[in-house]
Amino acid sequence: MASIRSRNQKLFFDFYYQGIRCREQTSLNDTKLNRSRLEGVLRNIEAQIRLDRFVYSDIFPDSKRCEDFKKYDEQIKLVKESEPEPTEQLLLNIPTFSQFADEWLAENKVQWKVSHSKNVSMIFERYLIPAFGSYTMDQITRPQIIKYRASIIEPKRKTKQSKLSNDWINHVMTPLRGILNEAALRFDFPTPFINIKPLKIDKTAIEPFSLAEVQLFLSRVREDFRDYYTVRFFTAMRTAEIDGLKWQFVNLDRNEILIQETLVDGNVETPKTSASYRSIQLSQPVIEALKRQRKVTGNKDYVFCNANGNPLDHRNVTKRIWYPSLDEMRLKRRRPYQTRHTCATLWLAAGENPEWIAKQMGHSTTKMLFEVYSRYVPNATRQDGSAFDRLIENVNLDAIVESLDE
Fold it and tell me: pLDDT digits over 120-159, tens only?
């Protein structure tokens, strides 16, 4: 790999040409500015080599290597005389957005989860490449980015596409920022993605079930899915976590479930965050549900699976079981993810320690509990100061005085 290196505090070029390693000394001191200058020259050399336009003697006329590459220099000079010079962009070897996207996605794929990689690839294919694909990476401007973001907020007139949410638009802009920042570093141009703040996202409204609604649902849902929904309602597990739950992670002797894997679009993946790796302490209804379930699927890998042992397709379960059950019971339609929100509010209402609840849910702090869930706890919504009044009234002054006199 070509590089600028230092010998005796003097910089030199180190690169390969025609399979031969070339080291060309300069008289420049090893400073940050000089390195930057020579790196620009080196990029130009690499670009000319790729385009078969590199004449060694033109760049290093006093080098001993000139004789080694004399025949190549003569051949290239003849070609250059008969063919036009490449454009400046081509000479600098700055790829188009479409070209660099392939490289950038391939480089990052190894560190992404399969589901995330598919999602980012879809964003490039559907949104970014149609808009920026033909531009070289350094041609994309900040105003162009801002105008593009504004253009995708509203759907095209002749389509039935609904308006994109701010959250989804931010998801589109995130990989755009990533690829532009990387290209700016790699090809030495200022990134155009400067001071473009994410769009404001309204807080998602949660609609937890009341305890009475939970009990009604569990009493009337199809019997073969009663244990599945009992676990969902009373463990606060995410959909991908319960989909990927295996018996090897269920310990009924210690009354706990270990979250070590998830299942997303049929792919086994790691949990969402580092805090998501956790041990969930089980309540009695969950313990009983898992004991019943073990009699059904205990000889298979997955706790909740079909007759072939394959994990449940949560989309199919939602369509066939969840929504029809809500409709039949005349309960308000809610996404299945509301089972997680329901569990959080029930724990809070029961007076469980917020730090314990946060750990159960896979949160690193209690911040979300107090921002999102606490308003569903009756005591937490009272704003008349009566709890503090009762605290003061219950102070036994005589007992305090007696303890001081002892």
Answer: 999 999 999 999 988 888 889 999 999 999 988 766 555 5
Q: State the CB neighbour count (10 A cutoff) for residue 165.
A: 13
The pLDDT assigned to 82 comes to: 73
Same domain, 240 and 374: yes
Instruction: Compute how many other C-beta atoms are within 10 angstroms of the C-beta atom of residue 200.
Output: 8
* 145-153 contacts at long range (C-beta below 8 A, 24 or more positions apart): 145/173, 145/176, 145/192, 145/193, 145/196, 146/196, 149/173, 149/196, 149/199, 152/127
Report pTM.
0.63
Residues 274/225, Cβ–Cβ less than 8 Å:
no
Instruction: Give counts: helices (H), strands (E), the chain.
Output: 21, 8
Dihedrals phi, psi of 17, to nearest 5 degrees: -140, 130
Burial code of 340-349, b = ≥16 C-beta within 10 A, e = fewer? bbbbbbbbbb
3-state secondary structure at position 12: strand
- Asked whether residue 164 falls in the same domain as residue 268, the answer is no
CA atoms in the 13 A half-sphere facing the CB of 115: 12
Assign residue 132 the CATH number of its domain: 1.10.150
* Percent of the chain scoring above 90 in pLDDT: 55
Strands 262-264 and 256-259, by their bridges, are: unpaired
Q: Which domain holds residue 53?
A: 3-91
Q: In 10 A of CB 186, how many CB atoms?
A: 15
CATH code, 247: 1.10.443.10
Nearest to 311 by CA among 276, 264, 273: 264
Burial 248-273 (b: 16+ CB within 10 A, else e): ebbeeeeeebbbbbbbbeeeebebbe
Sheet of 20-29: strand order equals: 3-7, 10-17, 20-29
List pLDDT tens digits, range 10-43. Answer: 999 999 898 899 999 999 999 988 888 888 788 7
Higher-confidence residue of 74 and 47: namely 74
